[in-house]
Specification:
Layout lengths: L1 H28 L5 H25 L4 H27 L5 H23 L3
Length: about 120
């Protein structure tokens, strides 16, 4: 039963991180056509898309050390995505209202992944 719960959790988190990437692409597409939006937007999209890709790598880790290293990268990328959204908001590139839900999701992913990392020690 515990293995089924773990598989469900992993599967749900894979779906959630993929959805985070897809939602991030929509935010990127909504950016204004300015130099600063393009530069910040590309940084944001790189880190946001890394969340989903790196979490998939976490799920394929061959050892506890590899798991720890890869989940740490995923946490960093989620937090970096949050940083770039804060920059977009504070630099008035996009209104915070358009970013708030995705920012909340990034914060939640950081918390969930950090808890998972902590439980591996």
């Amino acid at each position: 039963m515990a293995d089924d719960n773990k598989r469900d959790f992993v599967s749900q988190l894979q779906d959630r991180t993929k959805l985070f990437v897809l939602r991030s692409i929509k935010v990127f597409k909504a950016l204004p056509a300015t130099d600063e939006a393009r530069i910040v937007g590309k940084q944001f999209l790189r880190s946001a898309s890394s969340v989903g890709a790196n979490y998939r790598a976490v799920c394929r880790a061959r050892s506890q050390n590899e798991f720890f290293a890869k989940i740490s990268i995923t946490i960093e990328e989620a937090d970096e995505s949050l940083f770039w959204m804060e920059i977009m908001s504070e630099a008035n590139i996009l209104p915070v209202e358009k970013l708030r839900a995705l920012m909340n999701e990034a914060q939640e992913l950081v918390k969930i992944l950090s808890r998972a990392r902590k439980n591996t020690r």
